[in-house]
Amino acid sequence: MSALHPYMSSNSDLFQLPVTQPKLTTRIRNYLNSQHEISIKTSDHEFSYEYLGIRSDFGPPFTTIDHGDVYLFHDLKKLYGCDPYSRKDSKIIKNKILLVSRGGQCTFIEKVLHAQKAGAKAVIFLNNQHGDIRIVGTSKTPVRIPSMIISHQDTLSLLKTRKKPLATFQVHPLPPIDLDPQAVISLLYRGERIQNVVIVNV
């Protein structure tokens, strides 16, 4: 399927490559973004949930985080993460996965650097807008913690589940789809499935 990638990456509004991997994830993956996808699995005392995120192009890659502690500021100014955190906030953030909202008068990198300085071990961006986004950028200050963004729909779902105490919060990088012989890849054009696809790579 990688042979199709150069022809489809600029036409994602027309062509889509949804992928199902029942033994790996409950979510439908996007082949074009799969090398950047991260799985987030949470549970409360009643239900389990799974979200897919896209890791940032800067900073280290995500490693598996089991039973991570996650924190969300309810103060709107702190939620955007555009200002350095106080010493009191840093004590709360230290060694936690920080949830930060997209938006505000600063860049994604600035948000991550503020979280990094406060001692967070990772940042998950909450998407307050519809549509996929890839986070790119460069910084003179080394970015030492990983970050990712989840979709608007997953953001709403995660915030809803946050109303209950979470029993688990796990983060796992997903392996490349091309290495999974059981992956089922579909080709959609304008939302309609195309049957009997033959790929000729010349």
Radius of gyration, in angstroms, nearest whole number = 18 Å
Q: What is the name of the CATH topology?
A: Glucose Oxidase, domain 1
Number of helices: 5
Output the CATH class name. Answer: Alpha Beta
Tell me the total number of β-strands: 13
Structural domain count: 1
> In what range is the share of β-strand residues?
25-35%
Largest sheet entry: 7 strands, mixed
**How are the strands of the biggest sheet laid out side by side?**
6-7-8-9-5-4-10
Helix-strand category:
alpha+beta
What is the end-to-end distance?
14 Å
Shape: globular
**Roughly what percent helix?**
10-25%
Rounded mean pLDDT is 88
What is the helix/strand order? HEEEEEEHHEHEEHEEEE
Which residues sit in consecutive blocks of at least 5 with pLDDT less than 50?
none
- Known CATH architecture: 3-Layer(bba) Sandwich
Task: Describe, in plain words, how this protein is organized in 3D.
With 202 residues, the chain is α+β, with helices and mostly antiparallel strands. It has one domain (18-185): Glucose Oxidase, domain 1. Helices cover 18% and strands 25% of the residues. It has five helices and 13 strands. It has helices spanning 5-8, 76-80, 87-93, 108-117, 152-161; strands at 15-16, 18-20, 29-30, 37-43, 48-55, 70-72, 97-101, 122-126, 147-150, 168-173, 184-185, 188-189, 192-193. The chain is globular. The two termini are 14 Å apart.
